[in-house]
Amino acid sequence: MSQLSRLTSIDVLRRMTPSELRALSEEIREFLVDAVSKTGGHLGPNLGVVELSIALHRVFDSPKDRLVFDTGHQSYVHKILTGRTDFSALRKRGGISGYPARSESIHDIVENSHASTALSWAEGIARANRIKGLTDRSVVAVIGDGALTGGMSWEALNTIADEDDTRLIVVINDNGRSYEPTIGGLAHHLDALRTARGYEKFLDWGKRTLKKGGTPGNMAYDALHGLKKGVKDVIAPQGFFENLGIKYIGPVDGHDPIAVEFALTRAKAFGGPVLVHVITEKGRGYRHAENHVADRFHAVGVIHPETGLPVAPSRFGWTSVFAEEMVKVARKRADVVGITAAMLHPVGLAPMREEFPDRVFDVGIAEQHAVTSAAGLAFGGMHPVFAVYATFLNRAYDQLLLDVALHKAPVTFMLDRAGITGDDGASHNGMWDLALMRTVPGIRVAVPRDGDELVAQFHEALDEDGGPTLVRYPKGSLPEALPAQRSIGEGYDRVDVLSEAQGEEGARRVLVVGLGPFAPTAVAVGKTLAGRGEHVTVVDPRWVLPHSPTLIDLASAADLVVHIEDGLVDGGIGDSLRDELARRGSATQVACFGIPKDFHTTASRAQLIEDFGLTPEAIVASVGTDA
Ligand SMILES: Cc1ncc(C[n+]2csc(CCOP(=O)(O)OP(=O)(O)O)c2C)c(N)n1
Ligand SMILES: CC(=O)[C@@H](O)[C@H](O)COP(=O)(O)O
Ligand SMILES: [Mg+2]
User: Fold this and answer.
1) Which one, out of 41, 128, 328, 522, has a CA that is 20 to 30 A from the CA of 498?
2) Is the ipTM of this complex over 0.90?
């Protein structure tokens, strides 16, 4: 009988012998490869935390003890161990989320997939436990070495170090990588700890001792008892964690079940803030992941399990257009530099780094630093291009507002994954940037409708040296090119007319505005309205903030503006246009269509577009008839 099928409860897990645990680890790896190759997902990270997740659930008693996963993309094994083994609809509607989800399990806590938050979550939970006198409860934060490069992690560690009586265990899941090898001084320090003399000695001694081990059932006790007497002289050299005042245990081989369990048992018994440094391997046990140079299968699409090759071709057309154009620009403009927050390949800066390694900077998962560093680079005469997923820019709003915009710094933000991303969870939809940018003085925002426009607007952004510019585009493959029938105005003021129709005498005059990927939707809406005899003009404003005077004039001349955007409907660009028209005393009605702000369960982009009433049919039905 397979260990996985035996696993009907955590108690069964806790009674497993070392050999059963090893078999279970293998089965879980096979399960992960088989399941995730069918659906896509975070295969590499989860292959790396099989033994760690098992040990966490054997040593700690979730949900009494709280397990918090940073980013949460590495929680598939935790899900399997807590009774969720149907991965057939992973990240799909009706299936399990790719991140912890409270609606799925009492064992899941943090649904936010933005990195570097786990230590703050854990510190707050542990503080609450202390206040409530729940002194028998541990809080465990599992954080990757990449997430540890995020500033919030250090804000939390600074506080945690001061809370001696807090039962808080920080587990660093150190696989040496974010997507790529983790950058910076911290990564070097972790390396130093990892190769510390004590680590080898710790392991050899641990294995020797445990060869004489006790009964399998008492493995953790034997590990603890057997290794305790020698542990004092194998703790890794003083590191900044100890200097901060946080006890450090490790480094520990994260794929050695006994060593991990022993270390976690010690940490649990410590009774104060303690950090366990666990060394793991991203993609462990699946050679196509282990051999994948770029990111060890950090996030894969549907793949052939036997080869690791994608079933469908690359799905990131917009990113490829930017990547290619960035290299062309860099060849011509020495002042242009690229910045990424630990996502070199996903945002398309790898080709530029290939050719100009000194002009692409990876700052780790540190978007706030990236933005203010860009302000510094601009002050120094460069034109920085920060390529980032739209949702992750949220974190650097203050830096954008008061370090970049306040100083009118010529920084260009290239926002990938803007709008509804769908299956990657609620906090991954790039839905907030347009509304946020309404509050940023002086920023110019563009929303290209196809690849040609992305290139054109990227160049226009780079030509702007009087302040920040932002170009945002969706996840996935490129749409058909959508040429304009004619354009009105020049430069930022230019508005592209995509279609127009003269209606019947006295019919309603409708201006349909489709931003970016909703331009084709706007054309479809216009066609239906024209078919009913209404006067229709369908436009793409290209640069959407500040509003172009041409667009304002077109809108003022209409009875109704239908405005469709891949962003928040409350407070979005359509809302802003409505406010602007009202300020001018215009009687034009504005019907805004976009994303509602309440967060959503996992579903595909197509499903969410249906849900939000963003199909042409739904929009036409909503704006009614002229009658
Ligand atoms: C604020 C933020 N920026 C970027 C990302 C994208 N991202 C997701 S996982 C990841 C790498 C995480 O590395 P690490 O914490 O070491 O976890 P591992 O994948 O190695 O287990 C990144 C950059 C994110 N989720 N949140
Ligand atoms: C967890 C995380 O933030 C990233 O791994 C993200 O899920 C990648 O998204 P894409 O798959 O759209 O590149
Ligand atoms: Mg890592």
Assistant:
1) 328
2) yes
Looking at residue 313, its pLDDT comes to 77
pTM value?
Answer: 0.93
Compute the distance between CA of residue 316 and CA of residue 347 in angstroms, rounded to an integer. 9
Residue 191 has pLDDT above 50, yes or no: yes
Nearest atom (ligand 1) to Cα of 182: 16
User: Do the domains 318-472 and 486-623 sit in the same CATH topology, yes or no?
Assistant: yes
Q: 559-583 burial string, b = 16+ CB within 10 Å, else e?
A: ebbbbbbbbbbebbbbbbbbebbee
pLDDT per residue over 547-599, tens digit each? Answer: 999 999 999 999 999 999 999 999 999 999 999 999 999 999 999 999 999 98
Q: Is 367 a known active-site residue?
A: yes
Domain spans, the chain:
3-196+236-290, 318-472, 486-623
Report whether residue 71 contacts ligand 2, using a CB cutoff of 6 Å: yes
CATH H-level, domain 3-196+236-290: superfamily? Thiamin diphosphate (ThDP)-binding fold, Pyr/PP domains (3.40.50.970)
Task: Output the average pLDDT for the chain.
Answer: 93
Please tell me the distance between residue 373's alpha carbon and the centre of ligand 3 in angstroms.
24
281: Cβ below 6 Å to ligand 1?
Answer: no
pLDDT beyond 90 at 232: no
Q: What's residue 200's pLDDT?
A: 47
